[in-house]
Design a protein that fits this description.
The protein is an alpha+beta fold and 160 residues long. The chain contains eight helices and five strands.
Length: 160
């Protein structure tokens, strides 16, 4: 039993070490982190402006990785909860209710390190953003919690 636990922990650790920042493995980790963040699951789930759409998608990419695919997080709004149900490479088309965010790798990492929040990031054009701005503005707290999930537990020295 103890050996199985150690092997499981090693596999989990290896998965994190092998994730390239903004690749499909990273997107899955980000989706899992979303679901463990009450400010996202609960606050967005109860937000009238956010939850009026049954499912929203967030598309993200690194601006300095020109040949990289976008990653996608699909957030399902149900029972006053906003849960991530998919994290991986983009598989859907973006609609008017979805969000696109992109930035230089260094800027993503700065936001994840809490060097500044989403408002400053967007106002200074460090984070480029497309999507329903009114929804984003009404949900700035959860938006900041999302950017705080961007971390350095992946390899940002390579492009996905």
């Amino acid at each position: 039993m103890r050996k199985a636990i150690v092997i499981t922990l090693l596999v989990i650790g290896i998965g994190k070490a092998n994730a390239i920042f903004m690749d499909d493995v990273y997107a899955k980790m980000l989706c899992d982190a979303w679901n463990k963040t009450p400010q996202l699951v609960d606050n967005l789930g109860k937000s009238e402006s956010w939850s009026q759409i049954a499912e929203r998608k967030l598309f993200l990419y690194r601006e300095d990785c020109p040949n990289s695919k976008q990653i996608q997080l699909t957030i399902k709004n149900e029972d006053s909860k906003a849960r991530c149900v998919y994290g991986g490479f983009a598989k859907d088309q973006r609609s008017k209710d979805d969000f696109l965010m992109y930035a230089q790798t260094s800027r993503w990492l700065e936001m994840g390190a809490k060097a500044y929040g989403p408002m400053k990031a967007m106002m200074t054009n460090r984070l480029k953003f497309e999507g329903p701005r009114g929804v984003a503005m009404k949900n700035m707290g959860p938006f900041e919690a999302f950017l705080d999930l961007i971390d350095q537990q992946s390899d940002s020295s390579k492009c996905p």
